[in-house]
Amino acid sequence: MEIKNETRLTYEILTDVTLSTKKFIIVSRIIDFFTVLFFIALGNSGFLDWWVVLLLGVVVLGYFRVISPKKLKKVFKAYIGEGEARYSFLFKDDELENHESNEVTPEAHANYPYTSFTGLEFVKNYVILYISKYQLLMIDLNGFDSEEDKNAVIALLKSKVKKD
């Protein structure tokens, strides 16, 4: 079996889809929870006035909600540049072949056995394959030639990739 997929991504798309992943949302909620807990404890300690604690809490939560996504966007912009990144994926029986080109990396090639992926997630109209904790491949589900190819690849990935 050999099924091709052409995916085009910009740093805005990468940021938007990454912010929508289950892992990012869970980590974000955990940070929110412990931040609120910390500032409630700080407010109850009587060390600072309630309005100072409230102001500090809003600043810290604002940082995680506003600044962190901007930093993520900056990281992806440095990774692929201003234009779009073009990925060509070839799904084979035992491995995924990946060709990538963008402004920063004119040409890159890699082969990944399906057993090397640490997770699989469907977000919006993309499949995210996790290579490691900080490295992922994003595959556009609209990049297949036909609906049958898309369904065959989804079935293949679900059967071969380890679940988180």
What does it look like?
By secondary structure, the protein is α+β, with helices and mostly antiparallel strands. The protein has 2 domains: 3-9 and 84-160, Roll (PH-domain like), CATH 2.30.29.30; 15-80. Helix content is 48%, strand content 26%. The chain is built from 4 helices and 7 strands. The strands form 2 sheets. Strands 1-2-3-4 form a 4-stranded antiparallel sheet. It has a 3-stranded antiparallel sheet with strand order 5-6-7, with no helix packed on it. Strand 5 (119-123) and strand 6 (126-130) form a beta hairpin. Helix 1 crosses helix 3 and helix 2 (22-45) packs antiparallel against helix 3.
**Unreliable stretches:** none
Please give the largest β-sheet.
Answer: 4 strands, antiparallel
Order of SSEs:
EHHHEEEEEEH
| Mean pLDDT rating | 82
- Proportion in helices: 40-55%
Please indicate the count of domains: 2
- CATH architectural arrangement of the largest domain: Roll
* Shape descriptor: elongated
Number of helices: 4
- Reading off the top of the CATH hierarchy, the class of the largest domain is best stated as Mainly Beta
Task: Please tell me how large the radius of gyration is.
Answer: 20 Å
- Beginning-to-end CA distance, first to last residue: 26 Å
